[in-house]
Amino acid sequence: MDRTATIPVIEFSGEDIKNGRSSSSPDQRWKALCSKVREACESHGCFLLMRYDKIPTSLCEDMLVGIKSLFDLPEETKTKYQNPKPYRSYQGKCPVVPLHESFGIDDATRLEAARDFTHLMWPQGNPAFCEILNMMSSKMLELSFMILEMIFESFDIEEKKYEALVRDSVSFLRVMKYKVPTSEDQNLGLVAHTDKNAITILCQNEVQGLEIVTKEGHWEQVVVPKDALVVIVGDALKVSI
């Protein structure tokens, strides 16, 4: 695949966010930012978020180091993590996507849930990764709520009509690893799919591999710059016309 996608790039400045979210009368910069987010979601279904200082580079780096130590654990340890909810358990060694393994960690925004997970993986405990996992999950959830609010506000929907929907939303953190394919492996990380949730926020380890399909039906690679997050619209926010 030789095509490279050109998707919108948006920056969330601290001043614009502060003036918009904390004011009963948001300024024009906030309104323009909300419109830009909505337009990106409508035109491409995704955008690159640059320089979002609420999720610092140091936190992302610490999270990625912790994830590596998680996937380095023995297989019999990783398979202990089971959950009856779809996509919430450890997944690996699947013949359809042999390069992929992942954990879907439920409620990691609650410190107790993050602690339960890390104690299951490390019986002696791993307080450092527990704290990072909880903080990263919480920051990601806050960001997803803000993006949802921006989309609703861009349609001039009153806050009282959507605040309960946003407040009662649930989330889970998925951590994934793709091994380097050998000459005998198919070069496929995941099968083509759409996310069923409202918003997906992707933080990756400078390894390019994300592909999207355009409205014209072409598959294109998304080149993600260092320190950028990818925001992807899920099926829950899509409207068929």
Automatic annotation (TrEMBL):
Species, as recorded: Gossypium gossypioides
Q: Which InterPro entries does the UniProt entry name for this protein?
A: DIOX_N, IPNS-like_FE2OG_OXY, IPNS-like_sf, Iron_ascorbate_oxido_reductase
Q: What is this protein called?
A: Fe2OG dioxygenase domain-containing protein
- Annotated Non-haem dioxygenase N-terminal domain ranges read 7-92
Q: Cite the GO molecular-function annotations of the record.
A: metal ion binding
UniProt keyword list:
Iron, Metal-binding
Q: Which Pfam families match?
A: 2OG-FeII_Oxy, DIOX_N
Instruction: Show where the Isopenicillin N synthase-like Fe(2+) 2OG dioxygenase domain sits.
Output: 175-239
Q: PANTHER family, per this entry?
A: 2-OXOGLUTARATE (2OG) AND FE(II)-DEPENDENT OXYGENASE SUPERFAMILY PROTEIN-RELATED
